[in-house]
Amino acid sequence: MLLNLHTHLEGCVRPETAAELAQEFGVSAPEGGWENAFLIKGIGNLTVFLSHVAAAYPILGSAAALRRVAFEAVEDAAADGQSYIELRFGPGTHAREGFDVHQALEAVCAGVKAAVETTGIRAGVIACLLRHEPQELVEEITRSAIALSRSGIVGIDIAGDELLYPSIERFAPLYRLAKDAGLGLTAHAAEAGPASAGREVVERLGVTRIGHGSHIADDPEILEWVRQHNVAIEVCPTSNVLTSAAASLATHPVHAFTSAGLSVVLGDDNPENTGVRLQEESMLLVREGGLSQATVNGFASASIAAAFCSDLDRSALKAILASEEK
Ligand SMILES: [Zn+2]
Fold first, then answer.
1. Which end of the chain is more exposed for a tag (fewer CB within 10 A), N or C?
2. Which percentage of the chain shows pLDDT scores above 70?
3. Beta strands in 47-183 (DSSP E)
4. pLDDT-based confidence at residue 47 (cuts at 50, 70, 90)
5. Number of domains in the chain
6. 326 alpha carbon – ligand 1 mean position (Å)
């Protein structure tokens, strides 16, 4: 059973959809075409990685565009065999004159809802606060996310350049508001930053999940601390190799996480940029990563426990897993 707990809408845009949206926005096609602009060619760093994700930014600034790509992202997840997906995106990136973050969040919720009805899989939306965004903007995003908590928003996240903007203190009051409103809390941390950044987002923001958390594997004490606090790590294997957060799948921190008994959940981060979807990620962890099939299968129950879904959906997902295990 496949559950996708970490994937970015901006990294799920079909190249053929990008070409059509570009025409509508009057954006010229990148040299070599959209597929080439999205696809990362080899191992680099987070900055290079994010430049490929950003290729989709100029064509997502309308309700119709966001609704369409959200719909298609869920459709593609269903075609990949995923039973549940949490789709995250940064509304602040796509807001512009006459199109605000609330409308952006609403559009993605609408696209996801429509796709859930067509595909029958379950899905939720996570609003990303970006590390470089001004305080006023991240406050606006949080307020809108809370207002839309009954319309499809299931959580909030912090994303962006961790090395340039390591401080998270200003997000603490917003995380308290989101928690009080019943939203799930996660944050990208210790992906490019040190292990201590992973502990910090738990202590200061109260997250129950950490995005990537790769460098937590460098520090046995923090590894054990994360286990004791029952915080799940959202592992995106191929993305971590492409950003050099992990040297290879064989030496990926997921080995340290599973040996230490941490709760591991999977995501495919930006499938149109990495060229790898969740189903293939799970197979690669066995084939190239050397994890046992039983270990990888175990990520499903950890994902159901850590998902930002309703109790009703959690029970339904448990029932699907139980029927598959029979
Ligand atoms: Zn991510």
1. C
2. 100
3. 82-89, 122-130, 153-159
4. confident
5. 1
6. 33
Q: How far apart are CA 206 and CA 186, in angstroms?
A: 8
Q: Note the pTM of the prediction, 2 decimals.
A: 0.97
**pLDDT bucket at 286, cuts 50 / 70 / 90:** very high
pLDDT in tens, 118-165: 999 999 999 999 999 999 999 999 999 999 999 999 999 999 989 899
In this model, does residue 326 exceed pLDDT 90? no
Q: Which two tokens stand for residue 58?
A: 């100029």
What is the DSSP annotation of 220-243? Answer: HHHHHHHHHTT-EEEE-HHHHHHT
Beta carbons of 80 and 2 less than 8 angstroms apart: yes
Q: How far apart are CA 120 and CA 196, in angstroms?
A: 40
pLDDT digits (tens, 9 = 90+) for 75-90: 999 999 999 999 999 9
Residues tagged active-site: 191
Contact 223, 217 (CB under 8 A): yes
Range of the domain at 6: 2-325
Burial class (CB in 10 A: 0-12, 13-18, 19+), 251: middle
- Maximum distance among all alpha carbons in the chain? 54
Q: Which residues surround ligand 1, an ion (CB under 5 A)?
A: 269
Q: Which of 212, 222, 272, 220 is nearest to 244 (CA)?
A: 212
